[in-house]
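Amino acid chain
________________
===
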Amino acid sequence: MNYKLNRTLLLRKLLDLVNNKKKILFDELVDNLSDDTIFKRRLRMIQQLSHYESQIVEKIRNFKTDDPSDIDSVATAIKYEIETVANRSA
């Protein structure tokens, strides 16, 4: 596989993760309409994840390697950042 295919697959995987996190947060947002604090936090998290999507695309677009360890380390770092943004206990 060449680096274009690798980064395309990685991008799809990471954006799927972001979309799954946003769906969970949106469901929680709807479930907590009566709790203003939770509602505002979930809305902020959804907004941050939406903004982060474009940053992920930019990172992957500028990433050019075929080395699996490089791809894995970038994927791990981005997944960690996604989980940090979507951390509901923060």
